[in-house]
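Worked problem 6 (solution included).
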Amino acid sequence: MSYIEHKVHSQGLQYIEVNSPMCHAHIFLQGAQVTHFQPKNQPSLLWISQAETYEKGVSMRGGIPICWPWFGLHPEPDYPQHGFARHKIWHLERIQESEQEVLITLTLPTSEIETQFWPHRTQLTVTIALSTQLKISLTTQNNEDYPIKFSQALHTYFDIQNIKKLKVDGLVNTPYIEFNQNKHQTAGEVSIYKETDRMYHNASSTQQLKTTQGTIVVKREHSSSCVLWNPWIEKSKRLSNFNQDDYLHMVCLEACNILDDSVDLKPHETFTLSQTIYWQTS
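Solution. The predicted structure is:
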């Protein structure tokens, strides 16, 4: 039997706490953001900074922020970085329970879409499937009579305990862009020993994060691009809601549709980006 409670954080943000035979999770209505996911009898998969302030209208530093309808900086300098979906209050549509999973569906209300930045009629839905695995799916529906183009990411922060011992597998022979330079991944595994901000394209659908606690499997659907990010020492000093040594304990491996993988969505069609994460058990 699952115990599902609607709670209010001390800072006023509403969230859903799920305690099931399979996992423990927190999902905030702001940003439809999963901030905690821990399978039963296993370590937590997601990281959130102890410096996080849970401020209304500000994306939380950790968990899975949703970047939509663009990723990174917009060409227009006054547009918010990573879009606006991660700052908005989403509507809880339904919670469904079965022996296999708890399924939570949230939508972004039309009133929350900032038309000065995004003047298109679209419906945005997030489904979060909680079992021994976490699957998050972001669906965009184009309700216009013309095509729209967007980029997006599930900006997942993983709890990896010790960045100096992390190995990232599944990116060999993959091209990427880092600090405006085109590069190619040649090593079989990636180690992180400095600021890392790699936008991979034509990437395989599965990667592994080999940590001191075990191996985290990360699978993407309808995505051939991903981002590997760690701010390292100097950038950590400039980040909001981030302790200076937090870089040691986290890494982002983000399911994306960016670069040539950005989405051209035809009128009245939908597109779903999904990511599944879990601890490898064999």
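Discussion: The chain has one domain: 3-279.
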